[in-house]
Amino acid sequence: MLAVAEELKRRGHEVLFIGTRTGIEARLAPAKGFPIEYIEIGGLKRVGWLQMARTLWNLPVSTLRVMRRLRCGAVFSMGGYAAGPTVIAALLRGVPVIAMEPNAAPGMTNRRLGRFVRKTLLGFEDAARFFPAGKTEVTGLPVREEFFAIPPRKPSSTLRLLITGGSGGARTLNRAARESWPLFRSGEFPVSILHQTGRDAYEETRAAFAQSGLEGEVVPFIENMAEAFAAADVIVSRAGAGAAAEIAAAGKASILVPFPFAADQHQLRNAEAFERAGAARLILDKDMTGETLFQAAVEVAAQAGQMGEAARRLAKPGAARRAADLLEELIDS
Hints:
About 45% of the residues lie in helices and about 15% in strands.
């Protein structure tokens, strides 16, 4: 979303985000200087009838009011619960919509509304079968340009490992990382680890890492992720669409551990697509241990160059520009 917003801003357009106060957009959009409107909306999947009724009642109440005040020429949707009512409101008011489906397995919002929007842009070709013929285009997920600018790393005697479970961290990755430290310490090659734990696990993990004897750093959150990618040989990560797209853009070898409770198993489908391409090693959450992490890191490090090249082939560098082009066409039509 930020990549497309920045491209539109460069072209002289005004951009407004619509989201929830609990979503990551509440922090990231204002930090980049973009205004944001908040809506109050709950989930529709795996909730009780009372919550579903409350959500359905809030659809017109929380979104049509916002849309009535906006004089927007087009809407760009990434799917999700906040996007559902916003897209419905846009369609009811005759505002054209371009949707983006970042995952190999589409979420409920995009699956249900895909037939009504002008076009759905896809992060993975695998997702095309879920949408009407002729209404999709494989563009890849828009990624900020700094990830594409990362050059290949020169071979080094030290393996530089980046472990990130996303902004909130991941318990499985945090646990497996701690279990792996003794194995890396007694391994045959030096390693330097940068580990983003999330805020909840930071203090405990940082204190334990200080006693591990390993080179590296434990941090609660990485502000400049592109810089962290550039310094890494191998990335250990969940398999969300954003992380996968950034790994591809940066041309990095990776170990992907899909979040097992992701809707419609979309993280598993993303990781499978990367593994089929020879770009990543897939490890299921239930199989992720210190031993598994250590062995996978050693094996992936040995072929990091070719895996990184395979990842780069999955990247689509013009995705943000293409999305902006389509939105401009709708505004001008």
